[in-house]
Amino acid sequence: MSETLDLREQAIRKWGSDNRAIRKGKWIGKPARRLEDPRYLTGAARYVADLELPRMLHAVYVRSPHPHARIVSIDKSVLPGLGKTVFAFTGEDLRDVPPLIDHVALDNLLRTPQPVIAIGKVRFVGDAVAIVLAADRYAAEDAAELLSSVVEYEELPPVPNVAASGASDAALLFEELGTNEIYREAITHGEVDEAFAKADRVFSTPFEHNRYMAAPMETRGVLADYDRADQQLTVWSSTQMPHFLRSVIAGQLGLPENKVRVIAPEVGGGFGMKMCTVPEEIAIPFIATQLGRPVKWIEDRHEHLIAATHSKQQSINLEVAVTNDGKILGVRGEFVGDGGGYSFNTESALIEPALAAKALPGPYRIENYREEVGAFLTNKSPVAAYRGVGWTAANTARELLFDEAARGLGIDPAEFRRRNMLRSDELPYLSCTGQVYDSGSYLESLDKALEAVDYQAFRQRQEELRQQGRYIGLGISSYVEQTAWGSESSAQAGTPLPSHDNATVTVDPSGKVTVAVSVSSHGQGHETSLAQIAADGLGVDIKDVVLLHGDTSNTPYGLGTYASRSAVIGGATVARAAADVREQILQVAGKMLEASPEDLVIEDGKVSVAGTPSRFKTLADVAYAAHWDSEVRNSEPLLSATRFYDPPANYANGCVVALCEVDADTGVVTLDRIVAVEDCGMVINPMIVEAQVHGAIVQGLGGAMLEHLIYSDEGQPLTTTYMDYLVPTFSDVPPIEVISIETPSPFTVGGIKGMGEGGQIAAPAALANAVADALAPFGARIEKLPITPDYVLRLMGKIG
Amino acid sequence: MAMSSKQIVELNVNGIPHQLLVEPRKTLADVLRDDLGLTGTKLGCEHGVCGACTVLVDGRAIRACLMFAVQAQGPEITTVEGLASDGELDHIQKAFAENHGLQCGYCTPGMLMTAHAFLAENPEPTREQICEGMNGNLCRCTGYQNIIKSTAAAAKAAK
Q: What are the Aldehyde oxidase/xanthine dehydrogenase a/b hammerhead domain coordinates in residue numbering (chain A) (predicted)?
């Protein structure tokens, strides 16, 4: 208990007990309709592919058909009109552009520099070999096909998976490293060996987490234009991190950063995939500067499935030591990442296994834990971020194992969780891996979810149906979701990165509000939710607020949107800047109304004397006077403020429960119902929160039941269209009920916690546990995803 | 190259006749987007699975990435730009706005066009019928929940 108090006091000392207030009025907490919708509904919204510039060239990539090969020659001279109507660039032509390297601050991580177009060697099917350009996309495709047919390769032995990668005679992806294993490290927290020695029982499970990907509806795309008059490079990219991309492009191309502008126009979904800097985002701008013409590259879906970053794949071996009455004494886990051809520049090949290892304890009291993390290179597309990075795999392996342990001990799986779950009064809690859980409702979420599905009645019905040869199952998955990615969150996650974000709030002379933020929206509805915060801060209607995001030329510097950070960081920066502007307004209004600023209120766009609503000025009148009336204006008259926020870490939580029925003859799993309890602290817009949960759960459902990027033993990708790579459709998805609990964070501005990933983190385990529960009479144990009908039949012993 | 010889194509899009010179191999989707500037029609896969490029051809939902422009001469083509009139959203667009039926917006034009064709044939659909009828359109953001709700609400509003 004293440690709990210490944590709270330490945090308050560090982050300040004041300055966390947020002004709540008519908007925060309301399901406000989205302000951005009309342009999407009318087809007016413009994504990168919709942009066109005069003299624009279309770029098409020539990509490697081999998983592992040396490039012997590329004879560009076969291209008719080369240098006149058709242009081509190879890795050799971009030798001056430095390779992309990850920036994780770990000394014992081996580095794999990635040229933005391959030089000398290709390391996966889809690796970039050349870029061909023409004025028309069809012509560029023709030329790329022709060039593709004359590239000469010397094939090397493929390294299709971790087992092959670690073999003593394996071909090396980077010969200079002398190994394909680029990282291995073990850390022990607490007294693990003693815990296992004392245990009544030890349960273990090997778990293969499948390779799947974000696959947003809009693929990647880049348009670059170099203006020679101003020596200004403008890059439109489907990115989640426009400012960071500007910094990287400036560095890679050796341009002054104030001569680079990055615009994320409408972005058709990102889900983490579009946070990293991809080689195309460097190569295309470079070519635009060389040719002096605008260059547009729009990835097609086939290209996306083989060459955009993949995610999630890792092998986890987990063991839990328990007492007969179900108390967890200790856990051992080995997490091995299959990083693909390059340890990618976002967070390296550790992005999956390292984050999984740190997040493994979840909402449970686990004091003795040994984590071992490894990462290998293989001849596959590199692994990078996708919603719930590492945490999905960790949650799935842990929750599967806990169900296994509960079954083995003869304890109800909900009861097993209850016995080991942290109570609300134990928070803040320092997990053994160094994560400070600020607040939450772990047990309450579990109970609410079970209550919603009438758990006891389900168990009874399950028993009855089993007698009839029908197999229904219920799966539970509890989670904590680390959010608010700033400096502290990333450090607690195990991959420390500095953080920086700002918002500028401005009231113009007409009294209208412009908010410019460093976070960047790609479907999350920031133009509404952040407007709700500004509107309450300034006492105006959300319709009077315009939100600017995604353009480095009119928004303050910051890291954009990923890792459930934007509600916390965007929300706080806007709230703080709005509070400052409110003070400026009240100063001016005080002079106009001959009242003390402290006695004034702003509501519905009017500034009035508290208690005397008839004594008022409209915000428009005040704003006009603030700019033009030298009698009343402030010494710095602009009604504008820019505020910064680098938040303390905080943790959302929840529980997902899934109900299914397994057809014992066909192995087909029918999902009947999903209930999700989500606790993300103070909710800004419940409509948006609910929809984020829906979307995340269905992406998790995809990973658990359908999605699998399959490579042959020869390293060839076999899932290269949407006919082979199955994302969930309407009829794959059962009704999803979302139940909200609000436990405000004691650490952040307004008590806001991030959210958006919980569904993807928790849903796969809920679904897998539901299937395992249905198949308990067969002694089934799920050791891999996705759960396809043939795997189900195998689990039932019906096929070999 | 023979493939690049262009020919005259007459298209009737959102009530406006157009005469265009295009390659026979050019898809309807590319002609709508590149030649007519109607970029509301989206390309999500270009192999006929995702449905983002759905347009109405004489009221039927058609994947514009699987049809050549030369095949689309004669019928009335409707794209997402043809739904609202005089700045007023139609009842399906409104239902999507009121029920948070979209997030990033990329699949939305295709969803709206499919919903039009579907509701014309099934004015009072059940949840199962909506899922079946709209099953050829992929969305990655919403988990479909609010699209189902929006489509049901649109059916109600039309009554």
A: 42-157
- Per the document, the length of chain A is 800
Residue A208 has pLDDT above 60, yes or no: yes
Among partner residues B39, B89, B134, which is closest to A38 by beta-carbon distance?
B89
pLDDT, tens digit (0-9, with 9 covering 90-100), for B98-146? 999 999 999 999 999 999 999 999 999 999 999 999 999 999 999 999 9
Class of domain A388-491+648-792: alpha beta
Residues of A in contact with B83 (CB under 8 A): 41-42
Same domain, B97 and B60: no
Indicate which CATH number applies to the domain containing B96.
1.10.150.120
Of A39, A266, A523, the CB nearest to B141: A523
The ipTM (two decimal places) reads 0.98
A482: exposed, middle or buried (Cβ count in 10 Å: 0-12, 13-18, 19+):
buried
CA distance A642 to chain B (A): 28
Supply the DSSP symbol for A168. T
Predicted pLDDT of residue A354: 95
The per-residue pLDDT for range B132-145, each reduced to its tens digit, is 999 999 999 999 99
> Torsion angle of alpha carbons A304, A306, A312, A317, nearest 10°?
170
* The dihedral sign for the CA sequence A85, A282, A238, A142: positive
- What pLDDT, in 10s, does the model give residues A498-523? 899 999 999 999 999 999 999 999 99
Picking from B82, B113, B131, the residue at the C-terminal end of a domain is: B82
> Cβ-count burial of A393 within 10 angstroms (0-12 exposed, 13-18 middle, 19+ buried)?
buried
Question: Is pLDDT above 90 for B3?
Answer: no
**Closest of A357, A331, A358 to residue A434, by C-alpha:** A358
